[in-house]
Amino acid sequence: MKLSGKVAIVTGGSRGIGFATAKIFAENGANVVITAKDSKRLENAVNEIPNSVGITADIRNENDVKKVVEQTVKKFGKLDILINNAGIFPKIKQLHEIEEFEWNEVLDVNLTGQFRFTKVAIPYLKKTSGSIVNISSDAGLKAYQGFNADAYSASKAGMIILTKCWALEYAKDKIRVNCICPGVVDTDMTKPFLKTEKDRDFMNNEHPLGRIGQPDEVAKAILYFVSDDAAWTTGAILTVDGGESIK
């Protein structure tokens, strides 16, 4: 029970990595608040995770973000952990084909949305010497030929440098800020790229360990960062990607 008595917010927690993270947190004794835009999917997630509460929210809406944090503190009296996980993936296009509204939407969700949640959470995390984990991507570490998701890559690279900025900014407050960079993980977001056996074989072979990842494998790394096992770790960028980024 590594998180006994802790209170955590997991954004984008109704499916994929967010759901796996909320589940492992609850199994380790935390009270978990899950956010998502889709209220039905959120309800289903909460029904599967003990000690969890769902709050429907749009990460692009400042008032929704404030509502989530304030309702969390009102219900549980504090906030110990923030997992900035919510994100979207654009249609694959070359730069000259991207519409500006598409670019702006990805940055608004994947980068500015994380800023919104962190900004509101910081005053409460100061009181608990809390922990933040940002979910980036190995696409934020390097360019991949043929990937062609520039806004996504830019947003994920932004989360990596912001992790380091926030870690330094709030070290004096004993807030730890770390970052996970997953490779391709078997989630709803990646399903469009794994439609056939040939697609899956290709994606497995892109990872030196010979397969794509599972959500719980990323969740276990997140659990490490927010637990006392990582009490002396801040500003760290951890790849959980089957070796994809070191090729």
TrEMBL record:
Matching CDD domains: SDR_c
GO molecular function: oxidoreductase activity
InterPro entries hit by this protein: NAD(P)-bd_dom_sf (IPR036291), Sc_DH/Rdtase_CS (IPR020904), SDR_fam (IPR002347)
Gene3D superfamilies: NAD(P)-binding Rossmann-like Domain
Stored SUPFAM superfamilies: NAD(P)-binding Rossmann-fold domains
Top-level lineage group: Archaea
Keyword Acetylation: no
Key words, A-Z: Oxidoreductase
Family: Belongs to the short-chain dehydrogenases/reductases (SDR) family.
Protein's UniProt name: Oxidoreductase, short chain dehydrogenase/reductase family protein
